[in-house]
Structure to design on (728 residues):
């Protein structure tokens, strides 16, 4: 009806070539066989194992889980090994995993000469020693296991050291008598993908009572018994030289795991499920016959003979739960719909071992959750001291660094480059550093973004305190000068220099010193609006007062000439008109500035790495420089007029003092522009405050210090007689 068999792919191919001719169902319990050769040829083949490609994806998930990116690949040197590498290598590359080497183990046949095979293996073994990879992914059938164990046994003088062996489900610890002396310690801690298995009830109890004489006519059990227990039966001629006689009462449970396991392995579980699958298919077939094609002969039921090809429909549609509680069913490709167990191999000094189930690879799980691993259950090789092994081309790049590819190396090999200022990496092996938000900056380790602190010129820092003291001091001095001039307002010196213009100039200088306080402290909406406006208008009043004084001196001299028409222009009305008109022009510019693009509080997060500059954004930079330009124009005109009027005959001619004051004023503000543009943050504000104080102080000192000197220290010179004498 059906054939259960085909342990190795080669055996399966040979069987399916014959059985497919007669359309006989074949259930293979171990081999993974590709179906790309054609569906018709393998229509009669059923695999009691899941899709092999899913196992390869599981290996990639496992490598990702433990962050292993530098591995070695070992595959048998045949078509199956080629298929493994053709599938695995692209998968590794797509998932940022590199291989250090690819080792092809020879496929063992009976024609191999042992010495030549050993020589070839030892040459390949040196490649394993030179590799920095800690994890070896191994693909091969059970004969490959024997060859690898042979290699490790023959190279005991060159120990391989602690490695993590990740093996596919094709492998198994099978042992022959000669392999009893081969140590399996190297494979301690290995991780294996195994076809899912379970323990049917009563199976272990059955094994405890197995005896070699049960299966009469089947010599396999007796041969296994002799090989496993190292004895011989009297009736056997194979071990005539063996003195120990098998009693048949030996216990299977005393055998080491490398010889016999008391639990049902994946292979046995597949055979178990295959037998039940055929039984369920036959049952389904007979049930359908009873219902649809029953023949009555003499009152008794008679069934047509079952043909093998008739079972295919029932095999493909079976779905049942076995005695262990697992569901058995096939997919459209005739593969078992099942996952893989992830097992941890633990070996012992007596050559025995156990498999501990530590995870599961389930195809039905949601994407990204196919692999589940219990890390706490895994026991690593003793050389790792129970620490998770590291398998990378180079050490981890710690937070604060990013990976930088090495030229000429595989992409898994890289240097660790520190993150630049303002960028961080907060994970191991970051591909690139990430820029911090604008309001944060990187810490010293460049692994965390921390908030920037706000900075502005405040009263709590030395620079702000010094500027505030200077502003107060100059304001007090200006107020004292104003008081002196008001006290001595009827003296000739004060009268001769136009008292009203002098008062306007002193008051505007006092206000200019006081407006410096608008620039100190955290900028607000009101202070930002008042800063430049008050500065521009107050300074225009001061400069227009100076200009009016200078023009008054010139007009007064011209008016002394006989028949001059200039005399009608001399007077307070003309001076006040100059001050008012010049101030109104500046007020108009400031009004236009406020109506189009007024200043506003702003935060500059980019200029400084660790600070947020709280400042007043000028709104329109063009209008800001228009205000400054207008002040420069007034200063230039005042300087020019004063320069030409400095030699006019007058006892109290201020022109020469105004010339010096305008020279100081222009020098300060000409140096202000490049300095202002080259500074940032609170220092930019400090430069503007200093320019305001310096230029105002220049006007105060140059114009009023000579007068105060005469009024306070030489009052005898401040009289009408002295004035007339000096004119003569």
């Amino acid at each position: 009806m059906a054939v259960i068999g085909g342990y190795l792919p080669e055996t399966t191919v040979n069987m399916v070539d014959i059985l497919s001719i007669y359309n006989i169902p074949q259930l293979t319990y171990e081999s993974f066989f590709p179906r790309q050769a054609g569906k018709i040829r393998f229509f009669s083949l059923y695999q009691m194992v899941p899709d092999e490609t899913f196992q390869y994806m599981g290996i990639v998930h496992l490598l990702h889980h433990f962050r292993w990116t530098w591995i070695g690949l070992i595959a048998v040197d045949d078509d199956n090994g080629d298929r493994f590498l053709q599938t695995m290598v692209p998968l590794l590359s797509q998932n940022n995993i590199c291989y250090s080497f690819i080792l092809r183990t020879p496929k063992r046949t009976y024609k191999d000469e042992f010495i030549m095979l050993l020589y070839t293996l030892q040459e390949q073994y040196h490649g394993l020693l030179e590799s920095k990879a800690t994890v070896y992914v191994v693909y091969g059938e059970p004969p490959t296991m024997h060859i690898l164990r042979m290699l490790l046994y023959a190279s005991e003088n060159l120990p391989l050291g602690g490695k993590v062996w990740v093996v596919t489900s094709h492998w198994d610890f099978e042992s022959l008598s000669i392999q009893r002396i081969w140590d399996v310690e190297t494979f301690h801690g290995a991780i294996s993908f195994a076809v899912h298995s379970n323990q049917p009830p009563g199976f272990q109890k059955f094994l405890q009572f197995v005896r070699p004489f049960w299966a009469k006519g089947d010599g396999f059990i007796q041969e296994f018994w002799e090989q496993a227990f190292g004895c011989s039966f009297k009736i056997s001629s194979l071990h005539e030289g063996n003195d120990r006689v098998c009693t048949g009462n030996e216990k299977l449970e005393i055998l080491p795991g490398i010889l016999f396991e008391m639990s049902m392995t994946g292979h046995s579980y597949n055979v178990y499920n295959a037998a039940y699958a055929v039984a369920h298919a036959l049952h389904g077939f007979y049930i359908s016959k009873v219902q649809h094609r029953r023949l009555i002969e003499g009152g008794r039921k008679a069934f047509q003979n079952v043909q093998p090809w008739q079972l295919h429909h029932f095999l493909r549609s079976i779905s049942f739960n076995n005695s262990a509680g697992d569901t058995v069913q096939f997919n459209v490709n005739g593969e078992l719909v099942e996952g893989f167990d992830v097992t941890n191999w633990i070996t012992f000094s007596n050559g025995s071992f156990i498999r501990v189930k530590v995870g599961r690879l389930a195809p039905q799980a949601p994407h990204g959750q196919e692999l589940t691993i219990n890390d706490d259950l895994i026991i690593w090789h003793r050389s790792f001291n129970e620490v998770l092994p590291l398998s990378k081309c180079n050490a981890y790049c710690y937070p604060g660094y990013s990976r930088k590819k090495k030229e000429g190396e595989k992409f898994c090999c890289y240097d660790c480059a520190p993150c630049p200022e303002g960028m961080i990496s907060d994970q191991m092996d970051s591909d690139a550093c990430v820029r911090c938000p604008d309001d944060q900056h990187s810490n010293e380790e460049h692994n965390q973004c921390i908030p920037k602190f706000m900075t502005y010129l405040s009263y709590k820092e030395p620079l702000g305190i010094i500027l505030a003291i200077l502003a107060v001091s100059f304001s007090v001095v200006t107020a004292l000068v104003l008081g002196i001039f008001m006290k001595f307002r009827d003296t000739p010196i004060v009268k001769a220099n136009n008292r009203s213009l002098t008062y306007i100039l002193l008051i505007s200088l006092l206000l200019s010193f006081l407006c410096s306080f608008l620039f100190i402290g955290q900028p607000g909406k009101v202070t930002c609006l008042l800063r430049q406006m008050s500065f521009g208008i107050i300074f225009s009043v001061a400069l227009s007062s100076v200009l009016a004084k200078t023009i008054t001196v010139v007009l007064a001299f011209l008016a002394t000439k006989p028949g001059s028409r200039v005399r009608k222009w001399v007077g307070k009305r003309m001076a006040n008109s100059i001050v008012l008109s010049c101030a109104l022009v500046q007020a108009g510019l400031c009004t236009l500035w406020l109506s189009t693009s007024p200043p506003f509080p702003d935060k500059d997060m980019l200029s400084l790495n660790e600070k947020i500059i709280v400042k007043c954004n000028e709104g329109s930079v063009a209008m800001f420089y228009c205000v400054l330009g207008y002040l420069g124009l007034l200063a230039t005109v005042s300087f020019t007029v004063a320069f030409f009027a400095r030699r006019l005959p007058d006892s109290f001619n201020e022109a020469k003092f105004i010339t010096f004051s305008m020279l100081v004023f222009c020098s300060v503000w000409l140096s202000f522009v490049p300095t202002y543009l080259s500074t940032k943050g609170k220092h930019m504000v400090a430069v503007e405050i200093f320019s305001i104080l310096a230029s105002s102080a220049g006007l105060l000192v140059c114009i009023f210090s000579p007068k105060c000197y005469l009024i306070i220290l030489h009052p005898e010179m401040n009289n009408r007689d002295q004035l007339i004498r000096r004119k003569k």
Residues 401-451 form one domain.
